[in-house]
Amino acid sequence: MTRPLVIVTRKLPDPVETRMMELFDAQLNADDHVMDRAELLQAVREADILLPTVTDRIDQAMINEASPRLKMIANFGTGVDNIDLETARNRGIIVTNTPGVLTEDTADMTMALILAVPRRLAEGTAFLKREGAKWEGWSPTWMLGHRITGKRLGIVGMGRIGQAVARRARPFGLQIHYHNRRPVADEIEKDLEATYWESLDQMLARMDIISVNCPHTPATYHLLSARRLKLLKPTAYVVNTARGEVIDENALARMIEAEEIAGAGLDVFEHEPAVNPKFLRSDRVVVLPHMGSATIEGRIDMGEKVIINIKTFLDGHAPPDRVHQAMF
Length: 328
Description:
Elements: E1 5-8, H1 14-23, E2 25-27, H2 37-46, E3 49-51, H3 60-64, E4 72-74, H4 85-90, E5 94-96, H5 103-116, H6 121-131, E6 152-156, H7 160-169, E7 175-179, H8 186-192, E8 194-196, H9 200-204, E9 209-212, H10 226-229, E10 237-240, H11 249-257, E11 263-266, H12 277-281, E12 285-287, H13 296-314
Parallel strand pairs: 1-2, 1-3, 3-4, 4-5, 6-7, 6-9, 7-8, 9-10, 10-11, 11-12
């Protein structure tokens, strides 16, 4: 029997690629180059199943160019804002993602940034790179930051990752607050000792730290707008490990530069891979290259989820991680 052609847009961990070669006619990206639009168009015209990553833009025009043989887009990632879900549905193409397996890794990185920004790690790193040879040693009043114990953490998006961040934050003495489309279950709220805010504006104005943990959807684009960022206290800072598009990045950069808010810890950016130069210049911003979920275990788990979704679909069943528009 002819095996389905699965075109993989980026290099995946070796165990994942090996298993894919065993199960499917897998076309791999051995040198891990970023496929340009022409290559992606060729892929949707040839593949039975496309396996893109979150950085591959599979938009309406591209899906409309797809061959009728393309029946599934198995996204390597939790977010699916890179795929036009409505056009895929209209073309009868199933879309899947890889939820759940990145929760702990992303929450770990979020907590690391929550700890890093008030301790002025960006400023300390910049100093050592710039003037390390002149460092005269420890001083009681030099480069003082702030403790986080007793501060209020406002979590925007209390899904799996938001809850995992809250579980990590409580032992550090942070008070947990959150805004979500609806309150979480009573038992979860009680376990996390979390306070729900129906009004995002009211929560933002009262928090010391804001952690963005919601997906990027049309409804959350610039959810933290210039207007809302101005509600933050001058001593507050923002951590974002979700999607850059959720924050008005230019407004955030201007406010940090003007010292209207204390700083930021950013793992994602609005125009990736471009990073706003103001963030790179600032000693009050800790920047990372979208690596919140970058663990070997996490990437292998993602690959295994992709394989399960594809295999389940090919066996004539509904994939466990099928994406519906209403979910986002």
